[in-house]
Description:
This protein is mostly beta strands. It has no helices and three strands. Bound molecules: iron/sulfur cluster.
Amino acid sequence: MRPRDPSFGLCGSCRYRREVIGRLGATYLLCRRSESDSNYPKYPRLPLLRCAGYEEGEGEEPESPET
Ligand code: SF4
């Protein structure tokens, strides 16, 4: 398991995070709450310091590049 990246802020320890590795190797954080609630951005601006939807958890590890 990878250590949580402090530059992610609150999202880094949220169960709704999903890390995605882009084609150029950059890591993006996707908020899975955005899939069912439009109040949450798909790609939150990081570091996020406050979020009403935050729930502590492991989230999902990086996925392969998006197509
Ligand atoms: S619910 Fe909030 S804290 Fe959690 S991943 Fe989404 S934007 Fe980040």
